[in-house]
Predict the structure of Molybdopterin oxidoreductase.
Amino acid sequence: MSEQMIERSPDPYNAEPEPGALIEQFLTPQALFYVRSHGPVPDLPADHRIEVSGIDVESRSFSVEELKSAFPTRMVTAVLQCAGNRRTDLQQVSKTSGDPWDVGAIGNAEWTGVHLADVLDAVGAPGASDLFVAFTGADEVDVEGKEAPFGVSIGMAKARAPDVLLAWAMNGEPLAPEHGAPLRMVVPGYAGVRSAKWLTRIEVRDAPSDAPIQAHDYKLFPADVTSETVDWSQGLTINAMPLNAAICSPGSGESLPAGGVRIEGYAIAYDRGISRVEVSVNGGRDWRQATFADDPEARWGWRRWSLDATLAKGRQHLVVRAFDEAGQGQPERPDTMWNFAGYLCTAWHHVHVLVE
Amino acid sequence: MSEQMIERSPDPYNAEPEPGALIEQFLTPQALFYVRSHGPVPDLPADHRIEVSGIDVESRSFSVEELKSAFPTRMVTAVLQCAGNRRTDLQQVSKTSGDPWDVGAIGNAEWTGVHLADVLDAVGAPGASDLFVAFTGADEVDVEGKEAPFGVSIGMAKARAPDVLLAWAMNGEPLAPEHGAPLRMVVPGYAGVRSAKWLTRIEVRDAPSDAPIQAHDYKLFPADVTSETVDWSQGLTINAMPLNAAICSPGSGESLPAGGVRIEGYAIAYDRGISRVEVSVNGGRDWRQATFADDPEARWGWRRWSLDATLAKGRQHLVVRAFDEAGQGQPERPDTMWNFAGYLCTAWHHVHVLVE
């Protein structure tokens, strides 16, 4: 692991990069890409095969080499982001379950693989939009004290959408073990949990996966639902990730010399463009327009932004907020979106610094 | 006009329904559908023809009868909504231009017509996503003191998307004069301004329409831009309409008897589903889940909701907020989205009532 990774949990291993290191490049290096594990990292054999089966499917299995030769190679630049990214901001409102992610449980990579749609076509899978495609990983997961293989699912329409990949490479390099080697799903725009790592099985189903990760986790509930009262059959299954923006540099609590500072960060809005990013250096009283560092051609990529400002001596309060191409803005306060599992914090992001 | 219409401007005629009348039915009757005119209502002859022309297009014209016989008839249930709906909430922050719309500059109708995509195919129009399709109306419009025909445009990808119609009927009735008879565009999910009424011309272009309505109006700017400083070549062209929710009944300022009250309204989120609607009867301190009145099958329709509550005597403060299927919430305060033209107010909606 890079020294710039901050461990959030040793077992399973969960870590995110220092925000300043994260924002230095458009494509996040594997060594700086957040790791969200739900169990020990599996060590899969060289002849590992992925099974494809399910409703009206001709069951088959593929090695990674067979996938490479059977289907066109596709490349997609896409963010993956944990549904719990920025959970610490919700934990300042009130305690939540889950690891205390800061703003780094997100990364942007160029993924190489084959389209799930091509694989589904090859096994004659039906396309009805009321069907689901489930993914099983080789990792064993403990949910509410029960061990079960990692399992999730997505709807058939998304499964057949362009850009959903079975991927073997990130940024032109083979996947590292902690990122899902030899093969993982990449479901652009959806919460990272739907992009199963260490893929072992794809199944066409008439209902969502009943694996614990899909059925008893990663759902959004109103603020009055608690871990004691939760009915997991209810709630919103977290798929598409909402509009968000974060300041990555300077970091929270950082001491800076007086004078000019470049404020930098990222913004993201599922399948919508970002129309503008506004930064305040006085706690939200006045706002200035940030400049985009990345062009908008990567539909599923993030947009990094920056603003050059001059900060006076003393404690300074930086804030960022973004608007998407529908003119949609972010809610201001984390208490308006608090939920017991600490998902989807999209409130304005605040950073306090000391200028000396 | 219905007695339940509230006039916002006599010339051009602009009016919205009483909110309580608006929310009584899933499909808004024509007589209760908001009217946004930019000039006098044209009176088109029976043999009115719509011209289709532009880049790489075989120029043709069609009467409405010819459109009906040449192409399959399509029906789409869709909301149309003025970009200035809820402008009064922004005007309470600070003055804006534009008519003082309350929550009624929106309606939901079943539209009958033909797909624009079918018409584009019939004239051999190209499909390149960097092209635009412009619509001209028979209405003469005054923008910044210049008279010009009403003209707008949308991108080719949206123009060719399913559900974009040349429509001659609302809720099974011929279009009323003020709603665009004999033929209007219906661009589901987009601000109503893109759905040109009294359609006279469709043109494939390599740039957006340069008509004043497209080029010098209906754009979103940051709060520090004013009508004096605005550069209309900048700003976000308002197309997709963001997440919003409003209380329609009881109405603001209404006096109610003590006891049970049904609180009702609508929610809308462009192409996303609404995942939940929360209502507060104590000014936002506590929130309860509203019940949906309409199923989510109408992709472009609104979702009406209701909550039964018991209100104590005195002044009571009701608030609504919605979340979409990405878990996206609404910003809390209108000052965080204020803009000089008063567009896209999506702040939590407040209603004050007196319980006697």
About this structure: The two ends of chain A are 33 Å apart (CA to CA).
